[in-house]
């Protein structure tokens, strides 16, 4: 029997989620123009070599090296030009050369490009070169960038603009990718209001829903179909029937709110009654309550309702889970070392992620935490550009100490 009140550290919670949520397996073939950000579903080998022909790396004159080495004073006759896209088609004798430009095909008989800076132009289409010979031939051999048949990309890799450029230059027009998983999001709470649904303003006790817009914006870059299913009241029956409907058409359900132990917090009960509840507490600040389970085999993650907790758990936990769901492999966010401007109080026992601002002073990173870190204060995020990570085993942190920070745009 699993102990549902146990508290899980972030890493443990994440590895459990990843073990229990299946990555999408359905694939499709799409055009290169629409594939940015999608996840490759097969390894890709280069169908051609790049460059596909021997070409010049510089502007200059293509010659036979041996002829020049024999007599560096030799005058060469310029018998034609090879431009990028317009090759020279004749053949070249030992005392002849071909004017050549970057990216142009190297004439068959040439084995070196003399830089144009080293050429002395003589009358009657002749040229000679300065004598300080350098060993560099300024030739790009076939396959010098990518060799035919080698791996350019592996399955599960994200199609970044950089990878796409390589695939395009290899002449690929279509790529196999994983389909976009469908992720449905709800907010829960009787107090929540969507200003688009009702423009009459707030009544006493109501607040506007901050979480759905935040979650949508946080994951806009991921290849998922995010369906916004609106706000659900704190009503068990209504939550239950909406969840069942949503579970049928989703690969993952994400809710926020209603995961604590208050009387109006129904998510934990609903998940246990309708499906399987795996755990519901995190050893994390902010973000203590969090529910995970499944309804009709569709996994469901119930994030805490406080918008700061929702965002922090979405960044640290939901984002890697979504990356995994999309068919890719999440990597931990990069931490930087920063010197702490001011001191921080922290109780041993729970890892904490504080909203903070880092700057570069005299080539060193300094970070200062935004003052009131209460999880209801969204304003603690307003001028923040990172999270300070305080491990669970650490107590108060004194001014000037070195701390780990996670820049928000690294997540
Ligand atoms: P809960 O987890 O439902 O107890 O919510 C914790 C706190 O977060 C309460 O003060 C809620 O009013 C607030 N809250 C929950 N969901 C949202 C939301 N979507 N937008 C803004 N505040 C919320
Ligand atoms: Mg609530």
Small molecules bound: adenosine monophosphate, magnesium ion
Overall radius of gyration? 31 Å
- Quick check: average pLDDT? 94
The level of helicity is: 10-25%
Describe this structure in words.
By secondary structure, the protein is α/β, with parallel strands linked by helices. 18% of the residues lie in helices and 30% in strands. The chain has helices at 10-20, 65-70, 161-169, 211-218, 236-248, 267-274, 307-325; strands spanning 27-31, 44-45, 55-56, 60-63, 76-82, 96-100, 112-115, 119-122, 126-129, 139-140, 151-153, 174-178, 182-188, 192-193, 207-208, 225-232, 252-256, 276-281, 284-285, 289-295, 298-303, 336-340, 351-361, 364-369, 386-390, 402-407. The strands form 7 sheets. It has a 6-stranded mixed β-sheet with strand order 7-4-6-5-9-8. A 6-stranded mixed β-sheet has the order 16-13-17-21-20-18, sandwiched between helices. β23 (351-361) and β24 form a beta hairpin. The longest helix is centred in the last third of the chain and has 19 residues, at 307-325. The model has no long low-confidence stretch (mean pLDDT 94). Bound molecules: adenosine monophosphate (AMP) and magnesium ion. Residues 189, 234, 257-258, 264, 305 line the site of magnesium ion.
